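Quick one - inputs below.
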Amino acid sequence: MALSADVVSELERILGAGELVLTAEGRMVYECDMHTFYKGAPDAVALPSRAEQVQAIVRLCRAARVPIVPRGSGTGLIGGAMAPQGGVMVSLNRMASILEVDLPNRCATVQPGLINLWLSNAVRERGWFFAPDPSSQMVSSIGGNVSTNAGGPHCLKYGITTNHVLGLEVVTGSGDLVRLGGKTVDHPGYDLTGIAVGSEGTFGLVTAVTVRLTHLPEAVKTVLAAFRTVVEASETVSAIIASGMIPAALEMLDEAIITAINAGTGAGYPEGAGAVLLIELDGPRAEVEAQGDRAAALCRETGALSVSVARDETERALLWKGRKEAAGAVGRLTAAYLLQDAVVPRSKLPQIMREIVAIGARYGLLIANVFHAGDGNLHPMICYDDRVPDELERAMAANEELLRACIALGGSVTGEHGNGLDKCKNLPLQYADADLNFMYRIRGVFDPDRIMNPGKLLPSHPACGEGFRPQRPVLPAGTWV
Amino acid sequence: MSVTTRALGDALASIVGPAGASDAPAARRAAAVDGREPQIVVRPRTLDEAARIVALAHDERLAVVPRGSGTALALGIPIERVDLVLDLAGLDAIVEHNPEDMTATVQAGVTAGALAARLAAHRQTLPLDPPGWSGRTLGGIAATAASGPLRARYGTMRDLLLGVRFVQADGVLTWGGARVVKSVTGYDVPKLLVGSLGTLAVLGELTLRLHPLPESEATCLVAVRSVDAAQELAALIVDSTLQPNRVELLDGAALAASGLPPAAAAVVVSFGSVAPAVRAQQAAIAAAADRMHARAETMGPGFWRTYDRMLAGTGTTRLAVSTLAARVAATLDEARAALSGAGGVVMTGCASLGLLRVAVGQGEPGLLATAIERLRAFVAADEGSVVIERGAPALRTRVDPWGAVPAPSLALMRALKQQFDPERTLNPGRFVGRI
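Output:
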C-alpha cells in the first residue's frame, strides 16, 4: 500500500526534517530483520526521538488505517521487524538514553533503543548488571528484548526478559500513552506489564522500560566437558540438574559444530568428541566451588573424554570461545541454514537428539546443534545449499518435522526468539482453537483496529478472526428456570 | 424462586452428582461471601465439570465465586452478587510431577502443603510461602498473586507459573503458556491470569516451575536499634554478593508477636545453599551486624514455621504496602503514625523488595479508612500502593481496598473484563474499579 500525500505530509510535520525515510534505497535497509527470508519494505520509516511523536504517529496511522511496524536494532530472527503489508515502520533506535539508574531500588529506566549491553556497562563498575543476555546483546535493543521476551545463555538461572521488567511506557494501538507497572513491585489490577512483554509490537510501541538490575555474583566457575556422544552429554545434563544445582548456563555443542570450530581457530576440543558441555555456575564463592567440583565429578562419572575447569577469567574466556564462535563457525559448514528455536522438556533431550540425527539422515541434510541444554531450548541449524535444486524445500520439510517432534514430546514452538512471521503459522501445533481465539481477543483490547504489526505472532486461522465461537461444554438437556 | 432453585439444583446435580451440589441452609451459610449467601454450592470433581457448571451459570446469568481454601475471601470490594460458589477443593489431583524437568502440573484445588509433601521426597520445592501457605490452594495463590518471605529470592507465582488451563466466563476450556520451563509461544497468558482474582477466568490446572530444595539452610536474626537501621542493614545485604532466600524486616510488635526478645526492629535473613556457602554467608551477616554494633543470632530450624503462623494469625485487618526498598523505613514510620489510634499494629515486610505487611488488631473503620488514605498519599509519589488484603466489609465499603488505578490502565483492564466476561459472571464487582 502506498501512503497518501496527506499522511506523508503529516508524518513530516510530526517528525521534522530528515526524520522520515521515504526513498526506495532508504526503505530497502528496513525490508527485513536477521531472518532474511521474509522481506517487505515499509512505505515510510519514522525515526522519532520522543514519546509524543510516537503517539502522534500512532494516532495518525490509526485514523488512516495504516499498519505500523516497530523496529529496534533489527536483530530479530523471526521476521518480526519487517513490513509485509507496507505502512509505517517506527524505528526506535534514536530513543536510546538511560533515563535513570536507581541502585538503592535496584532498577533503571531506559528508552527502548538502548543497546542491551550498554546498560550493564553503565552499572557494572558499581557491582550490577542487567541479567537478560541474548547472544545479540552487543547490538540488540532493550525495546526489542522486551518485544520478543528475549532469553539468553544465562536465563537458566536468572530467567528471561519478563522476569526483569518492572514497568513499561507504551503507546497502544489506540494511540493512548499508558504507563504500566513501575519501580515498585506490586500494582493492583491485571498484570498488563506481564502480558505486554513478548507481544512483539502487536499491542503498541514501547517508549520506556523500567528494568530490574541484578547484583554481580561473587564468583563464577566454568567447566567444559567433552563427551563421545550427544546422548551421553544429555544424560549428564540431567544428572547435574538432579543433583540439586541450577547452573547460570548449561550449553551444549554437537559434533558438527565441534568439527566446524576445530577447522577454524580451534578451541582445544579433544579429537573424537561428539559433544561438548559448557557449564557455568555463579553465586557465592563457596557455593560455586562446591557445585563446580560436583559438576566436574558428574561429568567424569558419566564418561567424559575430558573435563577442564577454568581457574581465572582468561581460562574462562577460552572455554567460552568455542561457544561464542559457534554461529560463525557454521559458515564453514554451509552457505545457508534454517534456525529452529523449539523447546523440549529437559528429560527428553536424549530422545530428541536421536530424532534430529534421524531426520537429518532422512532428508540428506547436515543438522548442527548448539543450544541451551539446561532448559531444553534447542537451536538446530538445518544446513542447505540453495544452489542445489529442492534442497531448501527439503530443509523446510526437515525443519517442520523437527518442530512437530518437539511438540509431540511436550515441548514448545519457540523458547526465546519469538513468533513473528516465521513461527506464527506453527502456533496451532501447540494451541487449540479456543486458546488461539483467547489470544486474538487479548490483542484486540490493546489494538482495536489491528494496525499494530499485522500478520505477526498470531496465525492466519479461523480462530484468529472476528465472529469465531469456540466450542462450549455440552449442558444438561431441558429447561430449568 | 424455590422452584427455580430446585430446577437449578437438579441441573447442577446432573453435572456433578447429587453429592456435589448443595443448597442446604448450612452449606449456603458456610459459603457466604461478605455476608451474602449463595443459592447453591457446587463442587466439581473434574475440570470438565467445572467448565459445564460455569457455562450453565453464565447462560442463567448467575454470579459465580470460585473458591479454594477460602483464605482470601475478605480480599476486594464487597461482592455485588453471589449466586453460585464454585468450590474447587475437589480438584485436588497432582496430575504430573516430572522431577528431571523440575516441573509439576496440579489441579487448582491442590494445597501448597500437599504439593510440598510430594516434592520433598525428590528434594524439590515450589518456593511460594504466602501467610498460611500450607493450607492454601495453588489456584487461590495464583488468583491472588499472594506471596511471602521467599519472594525475596524466587519471585511470585508470576515467575513460576508456566502454563494454565482455565475456564472462560462462558465455560470454554482454554489453555495458555507451555509445559516446559522456557517458552515465548504466543502471548504470555499465564501472566494475565495471575492476580486476576478469578474475574477473567476460573483457574483449573497449573503447570509450575520447581526449584531444588537447598541442601542446607540457616537463618540469622539481627536486632537493631531502629527501623532505619533495619533498612540500612537490608540495603547492605542487597548491595552485596550474598544470595539470601529471605530478607524480612520485623518491627518491635512483630518480634513480640513471634515470641522473640524485645528490640526496636530486626532483620531476619536466611540462606539456602551448600553447607560451606551457608556458613560463609552467615559469617558475612555477623560481620555486617558487628559493624552496626548489633549481633546476629542463629535461629532454630522451626523459625519460619513460627513466623508463618504469626503472619497468618495476626490482624483482623491486613494491608499490603508496596513502596521502594529505600523508603521502607519511612513508610513504616508513616504507617505507625497514621495508625496511632488503632490497636495491635504489627508490621513486617520483605525489605529488599520494598514490601510491607501491616496487620491491625483493632480499629474502627473510619479511623482505618483515614489511615489507609494517608498511607496511600505517602506512597503515591513512588507509584506505590496500599491494598487491604483482609478487612471487615464495612471497611472495604468505606474505602476502596485496591486504591485508585491510573485511568489509562484501568480503561485497559475494563476492556479486558468486557472482552472476556461481558455478563460479569465471575466475581462481579470485587476487583479494581469494581470490575
